[in-house]
Write a structure and sequence with these properties.
Elements: H1 2-15, E1 34-35, E2 43-45, H2 49-66, E3 73-77, H3 84-96, E4 105-109, H4 111-121, H5 126-134, H6 136-139, H7 144-154, H8 164-172, H9 175-185, E5 190-197, E6 202-207, H10 208-214, H11 216-231, E7 240-245, E8 250-257, H12 269-273, E9 285-290, H13 305-334, E10 338-343, H14 358-373, H15 381-388, H16 403-406
Parallel strand pairs: 3-4, 3-9, 4-5, 9-10
Antiparallel strand pairs: 1-7, 2-6, 5-6, 5-8, 7-8
Helix pairs in contact: 1-7, 1-13, 3-4, 3-5, 3-14, 4-11, 8-11, 9-10, 10-11
Length: 409
């Protein structure tokens, strides 16, 4: 693990030395540009009040129409690297217990973005989901930092092709997947993925159902590239250049990991800032899967660059996720939503968010699946806070309790 982290650190250092030829970025923060052949409403900058106000009525009305029993079910999937196996196992366990809602809206960031299409498509895709998060292609991500550095040194463009992340996503984003997403999107359901536009320093939300409904190789390529971008940790994987046009000029936008700017989300940022009223979502059920730990037992950080770097990144992820959860709690209260969440417990023996060891990924998947099947997955935010915000945090255990089980007296 030390060697792998050393390579990650070297990749971060080298990333500042490499440049890739590209077209200029669009000149306006909020402009009428879009990927060639797609409508402008295929994505939204989270601070774009004008577009959000114009799009929100139709966008959320469709979700209400698709709701079974009249109640909207929303699933928000966080980032977390190898912790994505937790979310995959949780969904599989819910399927086995016949307790999995049909989510009218699924949102995803980073590892959560890779999980989101499977969560959106439902139990029929669980076998593919398990393969994606516990199979050999995910295990190949262990060697991604080394290959990234070599690609940057030898390639003039640094495009996201032929690295393990590209190979993983390209394998699972098939025409069959796009066709299935398009069918569900036509019913009013929504699949939304976040990337970070480095040129704008903004979070961009992509309507993946709109992309899928476009159809054909162009749609598959954009669908795939958005997922890759959302999971492309800077310095570990190359950024993704997405070609956009205003009808007269072509530009390149540089997109990276959505987790750079947001770790998990339900609504665009502007909806919270403006307290925008969304009657279609009042009384909805909001579920959040945090693919990581929100607290950890203290461990001595060794005085070297690699340990300081890796623990700094992990701490940043933890606090950013906590902040996002607070924002979602506020949204849920404002709209009268029922909010349930789950996370990897503090006493689960997770080494690192870049631990893609196949055996460890399978163990995390099976743990989450078992907890979900036993009805011990979901907690309220207060229950999560009670467990994580105490001085007596349990050390890692060989037999950790399930999330909901852990908070019982």
């Amino acid at each position: 693990m030390q060697n792998k982290l050393a390579v990650v650190g070297l990749g971060l250092l080298l990333s500042g030395c490499q440049t890739a030829p590209r077209r200029a970025a669009p000149p306006d923060l909020i402009g009428h540009v879009a990927p060639d052949g797609f409508p402008a409403n295929v994505r939204l900058v989270t601070t774009d009040l004008g577009n959000f106000t114009a799009l929100a009525p139709d966008f959320f009305r469709g979700i209400g129409v698709a709701a079974t029993g009249g109640i909207v079910d929303i699933l928000a999937l966080s980032g977390g690297g190898s912790g994505g196996a937790y979310g995959a196992g949780a969904l599989a366990g819910l399927s086995r217990a016949h307790r999995r809602p049909q989510f009218e809206m699924v949102t995803g960031v980073s590892a959560g973005a890779l999980l989101a299409p499977f969560a959106f498509l439902g139990p029929d895709w669980d076998d593919r989901m398990q393969e994606a998060f516990t199979g050999k292609l995910s295990a190949n991500l262990l060697r991604s930092p080394t290959r990234t550095i070599l690609a940057r040194l030898l390639s003039p463009r640094g495009l996201p092709h032929h690295n393990p992340l590209f190979e993983l996503v390209d394998h699972f984003v098939t025409p069959k997947m796009l066709a299935a997403v398009a069918v569900e999107a036509s019913k009013g359901r929504r699949l939304i993925v976040a990337t970070t536009d480095l040129d704008k320093h903004e979070t961009v939300l992509w309507n993946m159902g709109e992309i899928a409904q476009h159809g054909g190789p162009t749609a598959r390529r954009l669908f795939r590239d958005v997922l890759i971008a959302s999971a492309s940790v800077p310095g570990v994987f190359p950024p993704v250049l997405i070609r956009v046009t205003d009808g007269k000029h072509d530009y390149d936008e540089m997109h990276v990991d959505g987790g750079v700017t947001t770790s998990v989300f339900t609504l665009p940022l502007i909806a919270g800032i403006q307290s925008y009223d969304l009657p279609q979502l009042r009384g909805a059920h909001l579920y959040m899967i945090v693919n990581g730990q929100l607290a950890r037992a203290p461990q001595t950080t060794r005085f070297n660059t690699i340990d300081v770097l890796s623990n700094s990144v992990a701490a940043e992820m933890t606090y950013k996720t906590r902040g996002a959860i607070v924002e979602n709690i506020a949204t849920a209260k404002r709209l009268g939503m029922t909010f349930r969440m789950t996370e990897i417990p503090v006493d689960y023996p997770q080494e690192s968010f870049i631990d893609f060891d196949q055996q460890h990924m399978r163990a995390l998947f099976n743990y989450a699946a078992d907890c979900a099947a036993r009805g011990l997955l979901w907690m309220t935010p207060d229950q999560s806070i009670r467990r994580n915000m105490t001085a007596n945090r349990a050390p890692a255990s060989a037999s950790p309790a399930c999330p909901a089980q852990a908070i019982q007296p």
